[in-house]
Design a protein that fits this description.
- The structure holds two protein chains of two kinds.
- Chain A has two domains: 220 residues, 3-Layer(aba) Sandwich (Rossmann fold); 161 residues, Beta Barrel (OB fold (Dihydrolipoamide Acetyltransferase, E2P)).
- Helices cover 25% and strands 31% of the residues of chain A.
- In chain A, the strands form four sheets. Chain A has a six-stranded mixed β-sheet, with helices on both faces. Chain A has a five-stranded antiparallel β-sheet with strand order 13-12-11-14-20.
- Helix content of chain B is 70%, strand content 0%.
- The chains are: A alpha+beta, B mainly alpha.
Amino acid sequence: MADIALHDVTKRYPDGTEAVKHLNLEIADGEFMILVGPSGCGKSTALRMIAGLEDISEGELRIGGEVVNDRAPRDRDIAMVFQNYALYPHMTVRENMGFALKLAKVDKAEIDRKVTEAAEILDLEVHLDRKPSNLSGGQRQRVAMGRAIVRDPSAFLMDEPLSNLDAKLRVQMRTEVSRLQRDLSTTTVYVTHDQTEAMTLGDRVAVMRGGVLQQVDTPRVLYNSPQNIFVAGFIGSPAMNFFSGSIAKGKLKLPFATVPAPKGVDADGDVIVGIRPEDFEDAALAPEGHSHGVSFAAPIEVLESMGSEIYAYFTFEGDAVSSDELAELAQDSGVADTPGAGAGRAVARLSPESDIKEGDKAKLWFDAAKLHVFDPADGSNLAHRAKDDPKRPPPAGEDEPDEPDG
Amino acid sequence: MNRAPRDYLKWTVGIIVVVFIAVLPLVWIFSLSLKTPATVSDKSFFPKEFTLDNYSTLFQGGFDSPLLRPLINSVSIALIATVIAVTLASFTAYAIARLDFPGKSAILAGALAIAMFPQISVVGPLFDMWRALHLYDTYPGLIIPYLTFSLPLAIYILVAFFREIPWELEQAAQVDGATPWQAFSKVILPLAAPGVFTAAILVFIFAWNDFIFAITLTSSDASRTVPAALAFFQGDSQFTAPTGNIAAAAVLVTIPIIIFVLIFQRRIVAGLTAGAVKG
């Protein structure tokens, strides 16, 4: 058991590119920390630096209080689960799981006991004498986990361990990983590009972009008060809708409505406004007596009924918001290549009782208190910026936290 | 196999023809080796007078016999060359496959160039050099040129095999607590075993079959290998050609190669089916 602390850690390659820039991160003993971000954001590099598989160009890495920058991976007492599992193909499951102990010269009976114990936890007893090539994807994944847990290391590092599994198995293994970590309470750093995994698994989530840490906090805080437009767009599924708006004299003008500017946001001029899909509702079903509710009419393009909820895609006047951050997110998810990506479109999550029809010009409602307002220049959350300034009153929404619905 | 009968027939005939052409000379030599000196040139495929004298005379006289000493030399030199070549080649190939260092492509290109160099062009200079260096007519005198010409090939084969092995396996071993040497010897090398054996077979065959270096760089039974020794066989009298003896020696020389290939072929097949990383 140990805490992991990264202090001003930078990874610079010989050609000058920086994969990780001045990363500061404190991971407490027993904490489940998720590193999340689109591909190429430096999250894997950060993990590999913790593992010792990449050199640290600048900064300091401490595991259990000791600086380990110059220690070889084998001297760091960490276990890693690789994306492709990296099981040794020429060894049986038993040998795979016992390899680290064998290298550590643990005696045979003890290795046997530990491997059997881990195999029991992971339900692998019957497979112990098989080779990895005879196992299914899920079983291999469990062997990889087993190889990590038999060692009882001070930390687990996991590099997208579930990304090679099919969707159904992934959900199941996600629960499994979560349960294991809770039972063992070993410090865990988990890299993923999947925001659902990030939200469901982590005690805290660190969102990275282009080698820079954007925000570290509990999934709930990330969801409810993202520090900038990138975090807002990345966390949540379906993603937050963004509209261009402008603030003048305390009024926020949106493409489809004008509302009072949220408390704490007193900047004038152009802004980007984010509204989560679930903060919309069918106007007919809007909560009674809600003080911040605003209704507007919008043409519904497509309705997707999921049974428990309905996703309504509607169009609005004007173009979609353009910003570097959103462009990168779109690029990463592949949305950028779909036709009509540039037009003004948004998605609302409606109650299943809604009887809105496709093609209707329907009346929608949204909660104006739950707007997120961002600076179009640097993408920062204007409410946060206000909060950071001690002279200003606390922004709206902060004192009434609401449940993430995602 | 789901082939049409006509295809099947075509392949069968083709294979028989190819095998017949390839094997006939060998069988003919075998037949020659069983003939008596009197009938050796009677042009019949099956020996009329059957004898094993050709074999036994090869070993008459123990260490002074025509074949025993050269056979020992051949086996020793080929084995030593194979072990050294495979060891050096696996280190080199590992470095080339895993590391990015300046001059990497130059090393590979250089190795390839050496392998393509005509052997005959270096034999003369080597003869002079080896005499000056007292390597003439010694084991190292043959092993060194064999390494020069077989290492490049071994390196190429092993680089290809090492590149196939996922990098993560070695990293997993490192994280599991292995030193670089342990990661190499316990994880990477066993996985590259098919490549190692392929390289070993090719180096061994090269050293075993070589004639040009063996005939030029040796002068006595101290280091003369079988292919060179064959050229020094004499008949029973000055009027008889040593055809039968040469044929018998040729048969004997072929046997170790066949055994060597058969043993390692099993390993190669076993290695190739050992299983992949993900699926």
